[in-house]
Amino acid sequence: MAKNTYSAKYRAPGRMLWEKFKAIKGDGFLAEGCRYFLTDDDEIIHFPRESEVRFGAERTDVIQRQMSREAGQPVQMVDR
């Protein structure tokens, strides 16, 4: 997996099995009422907003690196 990607798994409502995705470089919500993952090869994966999502621990590191790059200086996450 690339340094600027992370993994996640999701389970659609009413489903028992989890589906895992690797090499995610972004995620979010769309106005149409669904969530999405943007993969490293620019594929967009849509799934229901009500789905359960579990992100890998590396997601925080990727977001912190992206924020630091955009800010032009180191950004530190605060634990709460």
Topology:
Elements: E1 6-11, E2 19-30, E3 34-39, E4 44-48, E5 52-55, H1 58-71
Antiparallel strand pairs: 1-2, 1-5, 2-3, 3-4
Task: Kindly give the count of domains.
Answer: 1
Task: Report the major sheet.
Answer: 5 strands, antiparallel
User: How many helical stretches?
Assistant: 1
Shape verdict: elongated
* Cα separation of the termini: 28 Å
Task: Extract low-pLDDT stretches.
Answer: none
Order of helices and strands: EEEEEH
**Radius of gyration, rounded?**
14 Å
Helical fraction equals 10-25%
Largest sheet, order of strands side by side? 4-3-2-1-5
Our estimate of the beta-strand percent is 35-45%
The SS-based structural class is alpha+beta
Can you give the mean pLDDT?
90
Total strand segments: 5
What do you see in this structure?
The chain has one domain (6-71). It is built from 1 helix and 5 strands. The protein has one helix at residues 58-71, and strands at 6-11, 19-30, 34-39, 44-48, 52-55. It has a 5-stranded antiparallel beta sheet. The longest helix has 14 residues, at 58-71. The termini are far apart.
Keywords:
single chain; 5 strands; 41% strand; 1 helix; 80 residues; alpha+beta; 18% helix; 5-stranded antiparallel β-sheet
Short description:
18% of the residues lie in helices and 41% in strands.
